Amino acid sequence: MSQPLTEAKSVFKSVRIALAVSGALALLAGIVLLVWPGKSLAVITGIFAAYLVIAGVVYIGLGIFSGRGGAWARVGHIVLGLLYVVAGVIAFANLQPVGELLALIVVIFIGISWIVDGVVSLTLLGSDGSRVWTLLYALLSIIAGAVVLFSPLVAGLAFWLLFGISLVALGIVQIVRAITLGKDAKSFVAAVQDDPAV
Question: Which of these, 63, 145, 186, 192, has the minimum number of CB atoms within 10 Å of its CB?
């Protein structure tokens, strides 16, 4: 078997494994989000809290051991690091409430950003070539943002549910792609082996 053909088979195999693993992880994560929404929110909050603690330790290390920057920069790094560590420890101690608060903040941010996006689209109405579509987009964006702001808990649950369903669907698609890529690899190898020019 020629070297390029061996390399092609290796690439197909690597891509296929990557697709299968990422698909399985997405499918598993989606199922966990749908079956245990509260616990998965706590896990995500735990990951975020761990990030805060690690980032805090890094900033404290920069403040203590970095020779660059003045005294204020070093003190600033240490103070910022301490704030990160404290926030991370508080988040670890209260995973569920902090997770719910973070989810609420994200949902409110989404609602506000949709309203702002709609208003910005309205300001572009005169210069845009497609006024009807721009107006429709702007109105839908403002209405969606207002709905999210007036019922953030329902919107948060809907986003979480949609996120879980999306992960399940994407995971299944990735796994199917990995299976069909195996068939494509066999067809490719057979075609190359039958080609007399190779």
Answer: 186
**Could you tell me if 114 and 139 are in contact, meaning their C-beta atoms sit under 8 angstroms apart?**
no
CA distance 133 to 70: 54
The letter for the amino acid at 57 is: V
Closest CA to 171 of 14, 20, 17: 20
Task: Name the token pair of 74.
Answer: 């070093």
- Tell me, what's the pLDDT at 197? 56
C-alpha to C-alpha distance for 185 and 188, rounded to whole angstroms: 5
Residue 47, amino acid: I
Q: What's the whole-model pTM score?
A: 0.63
pLDDT at position 5: 63
Residues 6+ apart with CB under 8 A from 108: 148, 149, 152
Residue with tokens 């805060």: 52
Number of Cα atoms under 13 Å in the Cβ half of residue 70: 1
Q: How many helices (H) and strands (E) does the chain have?
A: 6, 0
pLDDT in tens, 106-141: 899 999 999 999 999 888 877 766 788 888 999 999
Q: What residues have CB less than 8 Å from 143, skipping those under 6 apart?
A: 118
